[in-house]
Design goal:
- The protein is α+β, with helices and mostly antiparallel strands and 148 residues long.
- 32% of the residues lie in helices and 34% in strands.
- The protein is built from four helices and eight strands, in the order βαββαβββαββα.
- The chain has a four-stranded mixed sheet with strand order 1-4-6-2. It has a four-stranded antiparallel sheet with strand order 5-3-7-8, with no helix packed on it.
- A hairpin with a 2-residue loop joins strand 7 and strand 8.
- Helix 3 crosses helix 4.
- The relative contact order is 0.22.
């Protein structure tokens, strides 16, 4: 398992190749998040952020049969089209890889201590948590109260 919170960019190809597992891995699912149209600053709580990400990956490992995982999240000043986050998961089968990758990303959005400030024409503003992100994470919780 690789967890990294870093300023510098990452090489997607190299990170995915590092998960190949010498022929044991049957599937690698990955997600890369990019900065859309607005420059931003990402801040985090050093030490705590890495621990929380590790807990999320460990939860995924208890739910699915994973062989390895990499989570890289950047912080600092980011421009449109910059890579922000990589979640890559290796498993014997695609179902485990896809599900774990999506789970980790959903939980990163709601449980990892990052703060995002967007730099718009009207000035910088802190971005509030989205209810849609909370709903995405809640669908993985078997004890969550279902509505509808």
């Amino acid at each position: 398992m690789k967890i990294s919170v870093q300023r510098e960019d990452f090489d997607l190809g190299a990170e995915v190749r590092s998960l190949h597992g010498e022929g044991r891995v049957g599937a690698i699912a990955s997600f890369v998040g990019l900065v859309r149209d607005v420059p931003m600053t990402l801040e985090h709580y050093a030490g705590m952020t890495e621990r929380e990400i590790a807990k999320i990956v460990e939860q995924a490992q208890t739910r699915w049969k994973l062989m390895d995982a990499t989570v890289i999240h950047r912080y600092g000043e980011l421009r449109p089209a910059d890579q922000i986050v990589l979640v890559a998961v290796a498993a014997a089968h695609r179902g485990d890889a896809f599900a774990a990758c999506e789970f980790i990303m959903d939980y990163l959005k709601t449980r990892a201590p990052f703060w995002k400030k967007e730099h718009r024409d009207g000035g910088p503003r802190w971005v509030e948590a989205k209810t849609s992100d909370d709903a995405a994470a809640e669908r993985w919780d078997p004890h969550a109260k279902k509505t509808g």
